[in-house]
């Protein structure tokens, strides 16, 4: 019986080929193709076994000898499959060997082909290099041939040009011989020069002939005189005849041009203009056209211009009406130029040149005629009166005309004016006025200031009350300073308004920063002088009232040995002097307040307007700040003198009240030991009431450091005055309590000064008053508690009524010796 392997090799020959592994190879498909021939038989046997009641577990592919019922294998084809797999492995190994062999062969072939390819590429590169060299030689040859051809073409073109030029020269010589006839005889010329349909050609030839003849005459001029006389005699005749012909032809063309212009035949005008452009590049035609415009030759147009601007009132019609008239006139001029521009563009071959001539003529003739009427420069020696407008009217008209003329120049520039420098030409129209502008501006500001000061003085004289015999001298003294004579912030505001208007003109006239800065500084310096002078003079007038009040006080100071009647009269006059002093004090405080407000307005104006105009120029801003500081310092100096006088006035009245109202019994009551009077003395009440009333205006008028300095000085003077006043009295204990009450009253009042140093002094005064209250043996404790008052306390102790009786002097000596 043959073995299973032998039977499998016989029953299942394998046919594995390389083609089975090409393309989309699938192992599952290969495996299925090997075993599917055996699996159908096995499936039939499996189905037969299933009908006999036996089953084989699903997926059991293993066969065990002797297994199963009756010794039948569970999977009879297992041996065939094993044989098949072994055979397949063998064939796969063989196939791999074949593939390796083939791969090796292919590799050797590739190496051989690569070597051959590299050798071929090397040969090709050499061939390409040779080809490039050939192309370079070919390109060089082509370039050389092209250059040669171009030169030949240039020579041919030059030869053609020379041929044409020779032909034209021959023709020109023929025409030139025609003009070389008798001088002035132009009757025998060719029909070309008389045919109106060939005027352009005749003009061109005539210009060429004249240029040729003039050039020849000029060339002959450098030769010998004899040779020149012989060679150029005929050409000189030709030149003269040609000039006459050209003049005649030009006149004919201009006449035709004018006729066409009257009929508005733009095509004919254009044709004539083109022909005329051959004569002096058309300059004569352009100038002729511009000069023939009605606005330059019609006298009525010029008169209407003046009427539109000035009206019936002339320069006195006001700058607003003049500005309105200039706007109307300049709009009419711009519209006229715009219409002319349309015609010029359609007619002339070079319209920009014609527009340049037209615009220049407009500015130099028509605009200048208006400016001559408007800008009549006044004399700085005999200045026009303010009723006639003064210098300000001239400056305002100058600003209006300059501004409106600049607008017209920009409008004309937009219309078109060729290469004409319209801006420079416009500036030249105002050069004579701008050169002296700064002097006129300063003179105008000074004139306005003088007129304003005169008006204020006149108003003050008119409103000052008349002092008649029915008014007492006391009332007259109280009315010496009237409100109309005081400083007015409104007037200073008017000064600033003048200056602001002047600065606006500086900005208008000055295009360069340096010029602008210089003009602005000069104008602003005028304002500083005006404000400083006005405020200083106002403060001086207020100080005069203080001086008059002081003189009145001194006049009515009397001695002690006078009659009661004289004393009563003197007291009445002193009251009047006090009233005058109080009025003068209030008037000066109001003046100081208005000065402060005026200075604030000046500084604000400098910050908002002047500063930004000076900053671009180095040093200008700092210089103006220094000038402003000097002006303000002058005002502050006058104010400081007046404030010192105000303190003198107040203290004089305080001393008068103390001397008249303070009684000896106020501080040395005969009823000592009775219940003390806790009210302040009448003198203290009167003084505090006076100070409260008179200083009310000072609290309102003064601000900041000025207020603090004034009140501190007044507080020191008050403290000193009270000390000197109390040195005149003697005190008992009840009087000391009364004094302490007065000091408390004074201290409460000066606390409103907000001056800590003054508060401290009055607090020490309250402590000092204790020297009159304590027993003699307790005086030493006062020095121990407050050693700073020792000096004043030693003086005050001597004012005690028991100073001698209690032998306080020896007691103080022992205290001083112990200390």
UniProtKB/TrEMBL annotation:
Pfam families: Sec10_HB (PF07393), Sec10_N (PF20667). Residues 201-811 form the Exocyst complex component Sec10-like alpha-helical bundle domain. Residues 44-63 are annotated as: Disordered. Residues 79-195 form the Exocyst complex component Sec10 N-terminal domain. GO terms for biological process: exocytosis; Golgi to plasma membrane transport. GO terms for cellular component: exocyst. It comes from the Eukaryota. Keywords: Coiled coil, Exocytosis, Transport. Belongs to the SEC10 family. This is Exocyst complex component Sec10.
């Amino acid at each position: 019986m043959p073995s299973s392997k032998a039977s499998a090799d016989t029953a299942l020959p394998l046919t594995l080929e390389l083609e089975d592994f090409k393309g989309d190879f699938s192992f599952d498909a290969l495996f299925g193709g090997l075993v599917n021939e055996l699996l159908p038989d096995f499936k039939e046997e499996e189905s037969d076994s299933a009908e006999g009641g036996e089953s084989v577990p699903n997926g059991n592919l293993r066969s065990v000898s002797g297994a199963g019922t009756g010794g039948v294998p569970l999977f009879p084809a297992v041996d065939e499959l094993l044989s098949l797999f072994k055979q397949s492995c063998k064939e796969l190994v063989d196939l791999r060997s074949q593939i390796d062999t083939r791969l090796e062969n292919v590799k050797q072939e590739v190496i051989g082909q690569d070597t051959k390819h590299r050798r071929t590429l090397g040969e090709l590169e050499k061939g390409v290099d040779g080809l490039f060299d050939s192309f370079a030689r070919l390109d060089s040859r082509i370039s050389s041939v092209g250059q040669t051809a171009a030169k030949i073409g240039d020579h041919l073109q030059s030869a053609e040009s020379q041929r044409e030029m020779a032909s034209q020269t021959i023709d020109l010589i023929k025409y030139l011989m025609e003009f070389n006839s008798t001088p002035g005889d132009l009757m025998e010329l060719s029909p070309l020069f008389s045919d109106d349909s060939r005027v352009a050609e005749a003009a061109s030839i005539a210009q060429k002939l004249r240029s040729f003849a003039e050039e020849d005459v000029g060339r002959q001029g450098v030769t010998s005189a004899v040779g020149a006389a012989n060679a150029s005699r005929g050409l000189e005749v030709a030149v003269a005849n040609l000039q006459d012909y050209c003049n005649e032809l030009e006149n004919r063309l201009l006449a035709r041009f004018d006729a066409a212009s009257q009929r508005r035949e733009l095509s004919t005008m254009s044709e004539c203009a083109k022909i005329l452009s051959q004569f002096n590049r058309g300059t004569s035609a352009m100038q002729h056209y511009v000069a023939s415009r009605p606005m330059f030759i019609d006298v009525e147009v010029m008169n209407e211009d003046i009427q539109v601007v000035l009206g019936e009132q002339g320069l006195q019609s006001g700058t607003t009406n003049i500005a309105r008239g200039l706007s109307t006139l300049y709009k009419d001029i711009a519209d006229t130029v715009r219409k002319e521009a349309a015609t010029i563009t359609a007619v002339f071959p070079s319209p920009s040149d014609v527009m340049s001539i037209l615009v220049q003529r407009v500015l130099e003739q028509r605009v200048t005629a208006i400016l001559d009427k408007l800008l009549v420069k006044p004399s700085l020696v005999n200045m026009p009166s303010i009723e006639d407008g003064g210098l300000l009217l001239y400056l305002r008209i100058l600003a209006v005309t300059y501004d409106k003329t600049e607008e017209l120049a920009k409008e004309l520039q937009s219309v078109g004016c060729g290469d004409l420098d319209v801006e420079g030409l416009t500036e030249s129209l105002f050069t004579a006025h701008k050169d002296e502008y700064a002097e006129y501006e300063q003179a105008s500001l000074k004139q306005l200031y003088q007129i304003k000061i005169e008006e204020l003085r006149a108003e003050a004289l008119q409103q000052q009350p008349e002092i008649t015999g029915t008014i007492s001298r006391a009332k007259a003294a109280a009315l010496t300073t009237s409100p109309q004579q005081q400083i007015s912030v409104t007037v200073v505001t008017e000064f600033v308004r003048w200056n602001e208007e002047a600065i606006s003109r500086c900005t208008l006239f000055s295009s360069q920063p340096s010029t602008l800065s210089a003009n602005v500084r000069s104008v602003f310096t005028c304002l500083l002088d005006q404000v400083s002078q006005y405020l200083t003079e106002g403060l001086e007038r207020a100080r005069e009232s203080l001086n008059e009040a002081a003189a009145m006080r001194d006049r009515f100071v009397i001695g002690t040995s006078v009659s009661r009647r004289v004393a009563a009269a003197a007291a009445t006059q002193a009251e009047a002097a006090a009233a005058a002093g109080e009025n003068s004090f209030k008037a000066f405080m109001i003046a100081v307040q208005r000065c402060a407000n005026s200075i604030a307005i000046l500084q604000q104006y400098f910050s908002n307007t002047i500063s930004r105009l000076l900053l671009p120029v180095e040093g200008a801003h700092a210089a103006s700040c220094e000038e402003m500081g000097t002006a303000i310092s002058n005002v502050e100096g006058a104010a400081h003198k007046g404030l010192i006088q105000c303190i003198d006035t107040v203290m004089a009245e305080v001393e008068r009240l103390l001397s008249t109202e303070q009684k000896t019994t106020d501080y040395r009551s005969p009823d000592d030991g009775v219940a003390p009077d806790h009210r302040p003395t009448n003198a203290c009440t009167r003084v505090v009431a006076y100070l409260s009333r008179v200083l009310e205006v000072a609290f309102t008028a003064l601000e900041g450091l000025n207020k603090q300095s004034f009140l501190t000085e007044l507080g020191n003077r008050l403290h000193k005055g009270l000390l000197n006043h109390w040195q005149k009295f003697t005190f008992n204990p009840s009087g000391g309590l009364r004094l302490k009450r007065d000091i408390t009253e004074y201290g409460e009042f000066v606390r409103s000064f907000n001056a800590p140093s003054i508060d401290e002094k009055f607090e020490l005064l309250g402590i000092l008053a204790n020297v009159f209250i304590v027993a003699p043996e307790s005086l030493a404790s006062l020095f121990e508690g407050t050693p700073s008052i020792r000096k004043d306390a030693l003086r005050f102790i001597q004012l005690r009524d028991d100073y001698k009786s209690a032998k306080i002097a020896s007691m103080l000596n022992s205290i001083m010796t112990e200390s």
